[in-house]
Design goal:
InterPro entries: CB (IPR044068), Integrase_recombinase_N (IPR010998), Integrase_SAM-like_N (IPR004107). This is Core-binding (CB) domain-containing protein. GO terms for molecular function: DNA binding. Helices cover 49% and strands 0% of the residues. The termini are far apart. It is globular, with a radius of gyration of 19 Å. It has 201 residues and is an all-alpha fold. The chain has nine helices and no strands.
Length: 201
């Protein structure tokens, strides 16, 4: 098949994630974990799956969804395609102006769902590692010494922004300096709203 069946797709962004789904429900078969896990019971695989934080799982699911759609339009299986397909996808992202750091997140997400190639994770594949290194060399990060946006324009927009949710999202983006993907991965699920005594955490 070109894509996972509906019941095996990664959880979509925004789904409640306070109880993580079992490994199989997001397409993480024993093959993806490696040959040594082929005979592990479902409960053990699910526990391994829990190693990633809910926000990381949602972020990876979002990136994986983009890659899966890209593969489907080209008749490729995203979970077992050749390394050349993955590199072509990364090159297309780079051509569209995506930064090397964004590509690195995509690689991590693909590695989480894609079957190992020659018993090696996608993220450790020699060609992928060299590709990312080349992208960083050609597109070195340049820290901004001053804001690239006009503060007065932002304040005027904030004043006219009616929904409180949008104002909160904008202020959170400004003070946290997070990537868009990180902000999208935020959740209101109970597990993400737990506080210790005296609101210590």
């Amino acid at each position: 098949p070109l894509a996972d069946p509906p019941e095996a797709r990664p959880p979509l962004l925004g789904e409640r994630d306070h109880m993580a789904p079992p490994a199989q429900s997001v397409g993480l078969t024993p093959l993806v974990f490696g040959r040594e896990s082929e005979n592990l019971p479902e409960g053990v695989l699910n526990m391994i799956f829990q190693a990633r934080a809910p926000s990381t799982r949602r972020l990876y699911a979002l990136k994986w969804s983009v890659f899966s759609t890209w593969c489907s339009t080209r008749g490729k299986n995203p979970a077992s395609c050749d390394i050349s397909v993955i590199l072509s996808f990364l090159q297309e992202l780079l051509d569209k102006g995506r930064s090397p750091s964004t590509l690195k997140v995509y690689v991590a997400a693909i590695a989480a769902f894609h079957a190992p190639i020659a018993d090696q994770s996608i993220g450790r594949n020699n060609l992928v590692v060299r590709f990312l290194k080349g992208s960083r060399r050609i597109n070195p990060s340049r820290p901004h010494t001053i804001p690239t946006w006009d503060l007065s324009t932002v304040l005027r927009a904030l004043k006219n922004l009616k929904p409180l949710t949008l104002k909160t999202a904008l202020l959170l983006a400004l003070v946290s300096v997070k990537r868009i993907g990180d902000l999208q991965a935020l959740s209101l699920s109970p597990s993400c709203l737990e506080f210790g005594p005296g609101d210590s955490k």
